[in-house]
Specification:
- It contains three helices and twelve strands, in the order αααββββββββββββ.
- The strands form two sheets. Strands 1-2-5-4-3-12 form a six-stranded antiparallel barrel. Strands 6-7-8-11-10-9 form a six-stranded antiparallel β-barrel.
- The termini are far apart.
- The protein is an alpha+beta fold.
């Protein structure tokens, strides 16, 4: 009996099924021969590399942007730090120049007075203003340095223009300074042109100082420059205090009274210089950390 089942594959169908495999083998052989003789694969790789290179660049773009941003920010921080250091150095130099110009204009008697104080050398320390008293009757500022950084009560405070005031209260990490224009503040001054010694007092206004009790025979004129006289030892001699803008008899008519514009930028600026006895004036940088 002949059993029924699936028909046996014909020879032509088996050959047709293996044709693709044979074709791939033949093509591989041709490519191998062509690559061996004509160095085909390096050119193919170069072509493929050129084709996918934009994709590689696109994939690497975020990392490149990140690195560029980090480098740019680092450069900006470095430039900002250098700018702050240069600004502080310029402020100190301006203060020194203002003092030297005032001293250069003083007469022989004042120079003799300064000669007697040749041992009085100045050191300065940069401090930042962190708070301003808004009370119109109190002209005070709060500084970011205190006793931990060597600040003491009585230290004079200046800026690039001239005398600003003095320290009146000190804590471990801060200090309060009384401005020159406070109504309770007074500073011994001297007229540069004549050497006349007077006292300038605050008015409670940031743009005006008052010089009372001037003898009627005294030679004080509009435009005269007032500098610290050094009398009393609290304020170093030679720092600019203000410029006279008016002179008139006082209420008693027995004396004259002058009004002066402060030389310092009383209501501007964020940094000041604290003056103390010590080493000569030198480079100024950011305040060092306290102990």
């Amino acid at each position: 009996m002949i059993q029924s089942g699936a028909p046996a594959p014909k020879l032509s169908e088996a050959a047709a099924g293996s044709l693709p495999l044979l074709t791939c083998i033949a093509l591989s052989a041709v490519l191998m021969v062509a690559d061996h003789r004509g160095e085909l694969s390096p050119r193919v790789r170069a072509t493929l590399t050129s084709a996918v290179e934009p994709l590689w660049q696109l994939a690497a773009l975020p990392l490149s942007v990140w690195r560029w941003g980090g480098t740019h920010l680092s450069r900006q921080e470095r430039l900002a730090g250098e700018n702050i250091a240069l600004r502080r150095e310029l402020q100190l130099r301006d203060a020194q120049i203002a003092r030297l110009e005032a001293v250069a204009q003083e007469n022989a008697r004042l120079r003799e007075l300064l000669g007697g104080k040749a041992g009085y050398r100045l050191a300065v320390r940069m401090a930042g203003i962190v708070e301003v008293d808004l009370d119109p009757w109190r002209q005070r500022v709060r500084l970011d340095l205190g006793s931990a950084e060597g600040v003491e009560v009585g230290q004079a405070m200046i800026d690039a223009g001239g005398m600003l005031g003095q320290v009146v209260d000190v804590s471990a990490r801060g200090a309060t300074a009384l401005l020159l224009t406070d109504a309770n503040h007074a500073v011994p001054v001297q007229v540069v042109r004549t050497g006349l010694r007077l006292v300038a007092v605050g008015t409670g206004r940031s743009d005006a100082l008052r010089v009372p009790n001037i003898p009627r025979s005294a030679d004080v004129q509009v435009g005269d420059v007032l500098v610290t006289s050094g009398i009393g030892g609290r304020f170093p001699a030679g720092f600019a205090v203000g410029r006279v803008v008016s002179v008139a008899p006082d209420e008693s008519r027995l004396f004259l009274e002058a009004e002066a514009v402060p030389a310092a930028r009383i209501d501007r600026g964020r940094e000041v210089l604290l003056v103390m006895r010590g080493d000569p004036e030198g480079p100024v940088g950011p305040p060092e950390d306290g102990p």
